[in-house]
Design goal:
single chain; about 230 residues; alpha/beta; Rossmann fold; 4-stranded parallel beta sheet; globular
């Protein structure tokens, strides 16, 4: 079975859940324990905060490149990064990797198309929206989108930072639900949770729209690749 390298630590809880879920999904498919290796990237909180709010700190790219190099050196056959926002560096990271890096952005757009969605509401970091990470892939598949207002987007990024730094507030979940309902009122037929950490506070049963949860999409794609 192929060895999977995981770039974790960009949302510690999310990285650990991703590891465990991929492990369990592969076991269900093959009755075998998969070969998984996770790097817990030592990302400074200040850099994560800047990344959430629209900046691209140089240290983030440098730490990611180091992680990719170590995973390649350790024999990874493919690599997954369960974080949407850092895919702003995906082209540079692929330049440093012999092992293919599976893109959570590309796979999530494919899933939106597979499910027949026509107008997707985007809930992600300011950087993801500003850099059109998901929009670019949705465009390729003739899917339109709805994004939050500038004020709502700032609130979403603040909630993401709360989750990553383990400072989640009771109102965070309700704020996300309110924003998603407003996207629905503006014509969204579905919602793309374009931040892997938000799934720790929101479930599809909480919403009035079908949900595409990017971490689950990536887990399923990776589990299939490992099981084949």
């Amino acid at each position: 079975m192929k060895q999977l390298g995981i770039v974790g630590g960009l949302g510690p809880e999310t990285g650990c859940r991703f590891f465990l879920n991929v492990n369990n999904k592969v076991i269900r498919k093959t009755n075998l324990q998969p070969n998984l290796l996770m790097e817990n990237v030592p990302m400074p909180e200040s850099a994560l905060r800047k990344l959430a709010f629209g900046k691209k700190p140089k240290i983030v790219k440098e730490l990611l490149i180091q992680s990719i190099k170590r995973l390649n050196h350790s024999g990874a056959d493919l690599i997954a990064i369960p974080c949407n926002t850092v895919h702003v560096f995906i082209d540079q990271l692929r330049d440093f990797s012999k092992a293919p890096i599976v893109s959570i952005i590309e796979e999530s757009a494919k899933e939106c198309a597979r499910r027949g969605f026509k107008k997707v509401g985007l809930i992600g970091s300011t950087t993801s929206v500003k850099e059109s990470l998901h929009i670019t892939e949705l465009k390729k598949r003739n899917i339109s989108w709805v994004i939050p207002t500038k004020k709502q987007q700032q609130k979403i990024s603040g909630i993401i930072v709360n989750i990553v730094t383990n400072r989640t507030k009771e109102r965070d979940k309700e704020n996300i639900k309110t924003i998603i309902n407003e996207l629905k009122n503006r014509g969204a037929d579905s919602v793309l949770l374009a931040c892997t950490d938000i799934r720790t506070i929101i479930l599809e049963d909480d919403l009035e729209l079908p949900m595409i949860e990017t971490t689950s999409v990536l887990e399923d794609v990776i589990a299939k690749k490992l099981a084949d």
